[in-house]
Amino acid sequence: MFAVGVNSSVKDFIEAIKRPDAIAAGYIGQFIAKPFFGFLFGTLAVTTFNLPTAVGAGIMLVSCVSGAQLSNYATFLTDPHMAPLSIVMTSLSTASAVFFTPTLSYLLIGKKLPVDVVGMMSSIVQIVVAPIAAGLLLNRFLPRLCSAIQPFLPPLSVFVTALCVGSPLAINIKAVLSPYGLSIVFLLFAFHTTSFVAGYHLAGTWFRKSADVKALQRTISFETGMQSSLLALALANRFFPDPLVGVPPAVSVCLLLPKAPPVAFISALSMNCF
């Protein structure tokens, strides 16, 4: 989250003001369509696949968090001129997750597992808002230092991500490798794919008369399909007593990291072909 702040600037937010309609579409995909799909696949996990309730709750939790910075990189690969908009959409959705994530978690999961809404809000402020604010301030007042550390942030982020993912996967390795572990992978793959497609068609309908409709479709598709699963993982470890709740977020991270480049490549290829 600190890297998001370091790579953002006031100029990025000025760019966002020029496209409030795109931001609104991103919000609908992020906090309405995606939670709906999360609730759908989380319910299917329990009712159809006979998975533990905690697993279904973990899938729903993944759908309640904000967009991932990975969507910014995917957008940069396909539509560089849309990267500032993508960064702003991710930053704003991450900041507003202070309200949306606890609320959605309570609505979708609150009756199944205990959720500390106040504590979750406090945790999101510490995990999300504070690092982003620190990065923005560093970028604003110490640009030289910011430029000096920027090359080290991507590998550092990958290393920290590996540590965050490795721990819950190691703890729950038997669950991941069990017969229902494959079901979790399938359900999360279907969830992310459905979110990508929904975001793409949502933007296509909303901006069908816009000259840059295809670029907007790809940008909003990435924003809708890529979630901050690490945030979901941190919240699962902090607020849910059953460690199985952390398995879907951990698997989601493992799915998104290798899935993002191919999705971006296919999008870029289709852009060049059509």
From TrEMBL:
InterPro entries: BilAc:Na_symport/Acr3, Bilac:Na_transpt, Na+/solute_symporter_sf. It is found in: Membrane; Plastid, Chloroplast envelope. It is a multi-pass membrane protein. The chain crosses the membrane at residues 36-62, 83-108, 120-139, 151-171, 177-200. The keyword Transmembrane helix applies. Its main location: membrane. It holds the Pfam family SBF. Keywords: Membrane, Transit peptide, Transmembrane, Transmembrane helix. One of its GO terms (cellular component) is chloroplast envelope. May function as sodium-coupled metabolite transporter across the chloroplast envelope. PANTHER family: SODIUM-BILE ACID COTRANSPORTER, SODIUM_METABOLITE COTRANSPORTER BASS6, CHLOROPLASTIC-RELATED. Belongs to the bile acid:sodium symporter (BASS) (TC 2.A.28) family. This is Sodium-dependent transporter yocS.
